[in-house]
Amino acid sequence: MAHHTVEKIGGTSMSRLDELRDTLLIGGREGAELYGRIFVVSAFGGITNLLLEHKKTGEPGVYGQFAESDNTHGWHDALNRVANAMIEAHTSILEHPADVQQATDFVRTRIDGARNCLIDLARVCSYGHFRLSEHMLQTRELLSGLGEAHSAYVTVLMLQRSGVDARLVDLSGWRGDGDVNLEERILGALEGVDPMTEMPIVTGYAQCKEGLMREFDRGYSEVTFSHLAALTGAREAIIHKEFHLSSADPNLVGQDAVRKLGRTNYDVADQLSNMGMEAIHPKAAKTLRQADVPLRVTNAFEPQDPGTLIDDQPADASAVEIVTGLDIIALELFEQDMVGVKGYDATILDVLTRHDVRIVSKVSNANTITHYVDASLKSMRRVEKDLEKLYPSARISSRTLSMASVIGRDLSGLACLQRGLVAIAGEGLEAIGASQGPRNVDVQFIMERDILKPVIKALHKTFIEAQDKPEMQEAA
Predict the structure, then answer these.
(1) For a tag site, which of 78, 85, 189, 334 has the least CB within 10 Å?
(2) Which of 467, 461, 456, 425 is closest to 323 using CA atoms?
(3) Are 405 and 442 contacting, i.e. CB atoms less than 8 angstroms apart?
(4) What is the C-alpha separation between 165 and 162, in angstroms, rounded?
(5) Are the C-beta atoms of 48 and 150 separated by less than 8 Å?
(6) 333, 394 in Cβ contact below 8 A?
(7) Does the fold of domain 322-475 match that of domain 5-242?
(8) First vs last Cα of the chain: how many Å apart?
(9) What residues contact 421, with CB distance under 8 A and at least 6 apart?
């Protein structure tokens, strides 16, 4: 049986690396207690936004500037901003001047190398035989790897200064052989590494011939993490976040009202992912499930708390475990002649796929198909135009709405659909749609956007808080 764990630290937590040293990474451990743990690290908070584009606003970083700019000044300036941000990040964490200097030299070397690579690529593509568009995926991967390589290097410097036998495991493929698959990249880099006597610090980005960003884009670090855990036969895979996996957003329903999940399964993790609240990327979860590696989600700054264990075990009893919500757009296609005619749904799916629109849920009746999607209005306008060409007599519209979801491993016998509607109405609010599938793992409520937060609070009060207060159950 394996004795080691594989543990991932996210970017926001990495920006508090000095605190993690004193809690999670070292804490009160000494000697052999320090080891038996492999850490996969993300880039420091905000660095990937500067390298690629801002995740929320879409503001272009180095990648966006390089792809769109007609001159070199834009992406050169953006790359300089990355270097400055990296240096600022490690200067605020590392305490010894020699470590700061080593980290700064590392940044200069990697940034200058990337700059020269992009200059050469732009020069080659100035000839008609080569197209820059054909190399943008590799460019995106090259830039992404800079962030994780930097944070991993800084982590190793900090730990070694504190007396830990830490080792950098750089999967970014910097100046290495690019013609290896993900498994070969991981196993090759770990050759000769003994996690029971040293602490491997692994980059969240792994360069491989499959191209992680082609399928996972910025979810690549969880894919690296899950494959590392599966390939090494880890006892557990652990994701350290800045918060516990709880029954709702504590900022919304109140810190005293939420409950830590403690135990759930991969079914619930998939539902959370569908609602844009990923405990782990669905493909990464699949890798862990197939390898029979349980997943634990903890609060990185409360290392004594076991957090929430996610495995394949069913629930001991029916219960709602979490209430969450998501802003969506309802794409509705109404066609009077749809009854009995096949192909409408397949065509809509083709158009949504072509425009890279994520479907959250859908409903249909005799002459209407409605897809609830997670997308921008700009994307939906393009989808509508394509569908109007295909179905000129149909009425097609998009509408901004929200979806609240009640989720649990087993909701059977709880009458969540009916009780949820009563809870919403009891607050003077209105759901304009609701649905529940036969698997009894989630119930979805559709409403206007401006009432999503009070709806989540009402559902949480009924299904979570009432479980702890018998008088509330009786009232419900």
Answers:
(1) 334
(2) 456
(3) yes
(4) 9
(5) no
(6) yes
(7) no
(8) 48
(9) 431, 434, 445
DSSP letters of 252-301? HH-TTT--B--EEEHHHHHHHHHTT--SS-HHHHHHHHHTT--EEEEETT
Whose structure tokens read 């610090």?
A: 201
The CATH fold assigned to 322-475 is VC0802-like (3.30.2130)
80 Cβ contact list (under 8 Å, min separation 6)? none
CA distance 13 to 16: 5
Beta strand spans in 266-412 (E): 295-299, 308-311, 322-334, 358-364, 368-374, 395-407
Q: Kindly report the number of other CB atoms within 10 A of residue 241's CB atom.
A: 18
Query: 7 phi and psi, to 5 degrees?
Result: -130, 135
For residue 458, count CB atoms less than 10 angstroms from its CB and return exposed for 0-12, middle for 13-18, buried for 19 or more. buried
Assess contact for 85 and 50: CB atoms under 8 A: yes
CB atoms within 10 A of CB 391: 18
Q: What angle do CA 253, 248, 312 make, to 5 degrees?
A: 165
* Domain extent listing, the chain: 5-242, 322-475
Residue 442 phi/psi, 5-degree rounding, is -155, 155
* Cα-based distances in Å from 54 to 61, 64, 273: 7, 10, 21
pLDDT per residue as tens, the chain (476 positions): 468 999 999 888 999 999 999 999 998 899 999 999 999 999 999 999 999 998 878 899 999 899 876 556 789 999 999 999 999 999 999 999 999 999 999 999 999 999 999 999 888 887 877 777 778 888 998 999 999 999 999 999 999 999 999 999 999 989 877 689 999 999 999 999 999 999 999 999 999 988 887 778 878 899 999 999 999 999 999 999 888 899 999 999 999 999 999 999 999 999 998 898 777 888 888 999 999 999 999 998 888 899 999 998 889 999 999 999 999 999 999 998 887 777 788 999 999 999 989 999 999 888 999 999 999 888 999 999 999 999 999 999 999 999 999 999 999 999 999 999 999 999 999 999 999 989 899 999 999 999 999 999 999 999 999 876 554 444 44
Three-class DSSP labels, 72-135: CHHHHHHHHHHHHHHHHHHHCCCCCHHHHHHHHHHHHHHHHHHHHHHHHHHHHCCCCCCCHHHH
Q: Are 362 and 369 in contact (CB under 8 A)?
A: yes
| CATH code, 5-242 | 3.40.1160.10
Q: CB within 8 A of 191, min separation 6: which ones?
A: none
